[in-house]
Amino acid sequence: MPELPEVETIRRGLESVLKKSVVKNTTVFCEKSFIGDPEDLTGRGIYSIRRMGKCLLFVMTGKVTVMVHLRMTGQLIYRGAKDFAGGHPSENFVSELPNKQTRVMMEFEDGGVLYFNDQRKFGFFKVVPTAELINDKFLRSLGPEPWRMDAEEFFERIAKRKGSSIKAVLLDQKVICGLGNIYADEALFESGIDPRRLCGTITEEEAEQLLLAAREVMERSIEAGGSTMATYVKPDGSRGNYLDKFAQVFGREGKECVRCGGEIEKIRVAGRGTHFCPRCQK
DNA sequence: CTAGGATCCTGTCAGC
DNA sequence: TGCTGACAGGATCCTA
Question: What nucleotide is nearest A120 when CA is compared to C1'?
C-alpha cells in the first residue's frame, strides 16, 4: 500500500525522531518478517534514513543497513518523546502496541520504540552489510523515479513494453519507480489516458503528460504529508482519510467525475482494481 | 525476451 | 447468524 509519497513521509518523520538513536534490543515476533540476525543491530546507532523507491534504508553505525519494505500493509509506528506513525492507515496507529499485527519491535537506549506492524506479512526488515547494498537485486532493478528522467527517456522505456497496458507498466518498478495502484490511477486520470491502452499506442506527447502527472500527484501528496497519522485521526476523534481529500478517481467508483460529472468506473486491469473516468480518459 | 496469472498472508466486507 | 468468495495502496515466481 504505501507508495513513494507515503514512504518519503515516513522517511522524513522517522529521521526527525530516530536520528542517532541507539538500538538496545530488537524483538522479532514473526520470523518471516525479519531477514538476518536481529542481534547484529544491538548497540548500533541510526546514522541516516534513506529511501529508494518504496524501500527504506536505515543506515547504521558498524557498516550495517536495515532495508525495510512495507509492501501492501506495512506500518512503522514510533513511540517516544515524540510519536510518529505512517504506512497502511489503520487503528494500529493509535492502539496499544505491540499487538497481534506487530512483527518486529526495536527498542532504543533513549526509551523510544519502533514497531513494524504488517497485517499480511508481505513486508520485511532485512539486515545487509552497507557495502553490499549496491549488489542488492531488488534495489539494482529499480528504474528511475519520475523526477530523475525526462519525457524522452520515459517514452522510450514504455515503448519497449508495447504489448502491455499502460497501467501495468506504470506499476512496474523496473520501468519507473515509486508509483503504486493509487498514484498510477491518479496519474492516468490527470493525463486523460485510458488505463487499458497498450503502450504501443501511447504517443510521445501523451508520455510527457503522463510523466508530468505522475510527478505532480506524488509531489502534491508528499507536500500534504502522505496518508499519515496526523490526518488520519481528527481532533474530534473521528477517522479522516487523507486519501478521501486527495483522490480524484481512486476509491471513487460510482461517484461523479470531478472534471466532467460522469460516473467513475472500477474495472480490473493488470490484475489490479483500476479506477477511471471513461469520458475523460481516452 | 514478453505478458498474464497464481502466489505469499490476514482481515474485512458484500451477498446469500 | 454463519458461511463463502472477492478483494486488498506490492512484488516475485511460474508458465506459455
Answer: B9
